[in-house]
Write a structure and sequence with these properties.
246 residues; alpha+beta; Ribosomal Protein L9, domain 2; 9 strands; 5 helices; Ribosomal Protein L9, domain 1
Length: 246
């Protein structure tokens, strides 16, 4: 059956549009609810006059719907839920839950029938949910389901993490000290070695009291005393030198 829509109908069309639908849908739903009228020559003539007024109204409605779609599209809705076993939730997230969150957190009023959730969400994760804003204008939101945090467990985990960090820092400090100790000892030994060798050489080359002999390492004692000059050998006189020359 060919009909003229008198109201915007989701998945069918906008007011003033001529559509062909099943007879049962037209007779049992659309026409009784005054959402459409049967398209005849008379009704088409009458509606052509109204279409000019409806056109302006429809353009305004579409613009507003597109603004809402742009605003809501890609919005992430975070919902915390208690888990019963692994990733299984207590209860589920329904269109009613999503509608409430959109209204309370984002100031968007979306009718539940326009949230196109195939079935309730019963596990944690990310889920893309289509939203019908107006007839053919749609958007989608991301529903992020996370496990509800136990405050006591969270505090205990934070304390354990702090203790582990502190223990790691202490172990690193001890390891650094252990690695630096042999290096410091080696440097100390190297600084003391030349002094010991020098002392040894000085001891080996020490002059003995009352003796001009010098003992060198690896050589016998050598007498380096000067000839005796105490007068035991007399210098010849001038007369004796003259006689010897004659």
């Amino acid at each position: 059956m060919k009909i003229i829509l008198t109201s915007d109908i989701d998945d069918i069309g906008l007011a003033g549009e001529v559509k062909t639908v099943k007879n049962g849908l037209a007779r049992n739903y659309l026409i009784p609810r005054k959402l459409a009228i049967k398209a005849t020559e008379v009704s088409l003539r009458d509606w052509r006059k109204k279409l000019e007024v409806l056109k302006e109204k429809r353009e305004k409605t579409i613009a507003e719907a597109q603004t809402v779609a742009d605003k809501i599209n890609g919005t992430v809705i975070e919902i915390e839920s208690k888990l019963s076993d692994g990733e299984k939730m207590f209860g589920s997230v329904s269109v009613h839950t999503i509608a409430e969150v959109l209204k309370e957190r984002h100031g968007l009023e979306i009718e539940k029938r326009n949230i196109l959730l195939e079935k309730n969400i019963k596990s944690i994760g990310r889920f893309e949910v289509p939203i019908r804003i107006k007839a053919h204008i749609k958007a989608s939101v991301i529903v992020q389901i996370t496990a509800e945090q136990d405050e006591e467990a969270l505090a205990a985990a934070q304390v354990a993490e702090m203790e582990e960090t502190q223990n790691t820092e202490e172990q690193d400090a001890m390891q650094t000290e252990t690695e630096q100790a042999p290096e410091a000892q080696s440097e100390e030994e190297q600084s003391e070695e030349p002094q010991g060798e020098e002392t040894e050489k000085v001891e080996e080359q020490t002059l003995t009291d009352g003796d001009t002999s010098v003992k060198l390492d690896g050589f016998e004692k050598v007498d380096m005393s000067l000839p005796d000059t105490d007068g035991s050998e007399e210098t010849p006189s001038a007369d004796e030198e003259s006689k010897e020359e004659a």
